[in-house]
Amino acid sequence: MSTGARLQREWTFLSGLIRTLMRVRTIGGRSANLVTDDLEAAVDRWPGNIALSFEGRTLTYGEMDALANRYAHWAENIGLRRGEVVALLMPNRLEYLPIWYGLSKVGVATALINNQLTGDALSHCLNVSGAAHCLVDEETAPAFEAARAKSVHVTHEWTLGEARGDQRDLTQALKSCGGLRPDRARREGLTASDTALYIFTSGTTGLPKAARITHMRAQLYMRGFAGATGAKADDRIYVTLPFYHATGGLCAAGAALLNGGAVVLRKHFSASHFWSDIVAEGCTMFVYIGELCRYLANQTQVPQETQHKLRLAFGNGLRPDVWETLEGRFAVPRVLEFYGSTEGNVSMFNFDGKLGAIGRDPGYLKSFFNVRLAKFDVETEMPVRGPDGLCVEAAVDEPGECLGEIKQDARSAYVGYADKAASEKKVLRDAFRLGDAWFRTGDLLRQDADGYFYFVDRIGDTFRWKGENVSTSEVAEALAQAPGVKEANVYGVKVGELDGRAGMAGLVVAADFDPKSFGAFVAQRLPAYAQPVFLRLLPAIQVTGTFKYRKMDLVADGFDPAVVKDPLYLRGDKGYQKLTRPLLAKVLSGEMRV
Questions:
Q1: What is the rounded distance in angstroms from the CA atom of residue 155 to the CA atom of residue 439?
Q2: Which backbone phi and psi does 336 adopt, to 5 degrees?
């Protein structure tokens, strides 16, 4: 890299970092300034600007505030007190953000519950929230009522749809509530360390956990992205992610609303309507997560995909091959990839657009950031400790678990979950010096010589095979580039009494997919130990509401043709062949080596 290019890179990185830090510098746990106050300040500055747009309906900042005020008065009218919780079980809709914003005006917290949950998972979230009141609409009411029998606390169901049976009519109740702002004295004594929201983890490895989002944490999300994206009052940010999740509901919302811009909200993501919608709405940014952009890349080309006014796409989980498609085929001028977790204290941005990187911590700023990578043992799933009992920092380009030092300042504080025991399990003590404490992200990253971080895998997804560590993320990235492969989900499976776990790939393929050609591609691109032993051809890959691949069910299904009805293949000396029951018997007996 030339000196000029290097200087330009540093300027872009530092200007983005400084812009972000300037927006979050006054946030503190003891501050009386709440996320509510940030939103009210935006309302007072841009009352006539469009704040929210949803399916042909809009709210100006002033109208959004008035609607929020009605929810605040409703809460007081039914006797809710500060510190109590209301459960919000709805899909994306115009009222979603005004509901929790309004409740926060009188110190009531909102539990944002995944509207796709049903049964035991939904009952669990309702119980964990501790809410006595749940807000639903006509779409989510049936799931709530089915789960209600197992909920311990929730006794009142309020609906924005037509009220039936013992449902309470929320629309009617709001008509008697004024739109004037409640006096700020109603939240007097609250600080930014008090709870504003509960946001639940995706539950990819078990039941969802409730992350406690304090006002301070919500401010970090909203103000941080307001600075990082460089959004302005004329920006329109397209959001198809669920508002019950932080990336869409706080990061994207904050980028728009704390800068006078508009959130163009959709009920759900549609790959086929994405570009026509972006163009029709005049959007200038969009937010992504997980595999959302891969779905766009797998669509047939349409003229609108380059006729937009986009200047930025921001989010996390973008793989390098899709990143190139985003900037190339889709002509998106700039990508802002970030790294973070709902409950954690580690966050970083890739301000200068280094392909594939999730953030950067250059050597000259190492002491400024709270991030370290610890050498990691895949078999014990714990950081490696040296002779002195302390963790060993990973070398350049060596995968290690990402840890975030827990401190008292807003950026490094760790709040954790509603469950204190679950929170403590994520803390690593006496890591790099006696008495310190670090948040375990559960992610394996690597850092190059220039300070860029790259995602390697989730702990638990990486497995050992043939004495080597196999990163499911890196293998999936390679497989997704094979001819005829649309999507790839890689995981490890136990094979009889063999040590470790063998690689297995769930693939969504095109009609022209050829297992023989695929085998040749895999042999060329991956070392033998990383090549999937088994293949399963899937009609679609199941994802969470935030577009993360589900693996647990696939692992549980295994590779028995008597159980799995999808086409199965086994890697042999001559490439991949159909896996039959007799062939499987040879594998399990040891007659055929894998």
A1: 36
A2: -115, 100
| Sign, CA torsion 10/15/16/22 | positive
Residue 434's pLDDT band, with cuts at 50, 70 and 90, is very high
| 430-435: long-range contacts, CB 8 A cutoff, minimum separation 24 | 430/389, 430/390, 431/372, 431/374, 431/383, 431/390, 431/391, 431/403, 432/372, 432/390, 432/391, 432/393, 433/390
Answer yes or no: are the C-beta atoms of 277 and 310 closer than 8 Å.
no
Helices (H), 81-202: 96-104, 119-129, 141-147, 170-175
Q: How many CB atoms are closer than 10 A to CB 594?
A: 18
Give pLDDT, residue 204.
Answer: 56
Q: Nearest 5 degrees, angle CA 250-CA 253-CA 255?
A: 105
- Which residue has tokens 């941080």? 224
Average pLDDT over the chain reads 95
Give pTM, 2 decimals.
0.90
Residue with the two structure tokens 């639940």: 200
Which pLDDT value is given to residue 205? 57
C-alpha gyration radius of the chain: 25
| Contact (CB, 8 A) for 568 and 561 | yes
- Counting every residue, how long is the chain? 594
Q: State pLDDT tens for residues 299-318.
A: 999 999 999 999 999 999 99
The owner of tokens 């709870």 is: 195
Task: State pLDDT tens for residues 442-501.
Answer: 999 999 999 999 999 989 899 989 988 999 999 999 999 999 999 999 999 999 988 899
Q: Which residues contact 295 (CB under 8 A, 6 or more apart)?
A: 269, 271
Task: List, for residues 513-547, the tens digit of each pLDDT value.
Answer: 999 999 999 999 999 999 999 999 999 999 888 88
Which residue has 């406690």 as its token pair? 212
First to last CA, the chain: 44
- The helix (H) or strand (E) run that includes residue 65 is helix 61-77
Identify the CA nearest to 160 among candidates 35, 70, 238, 50: 70
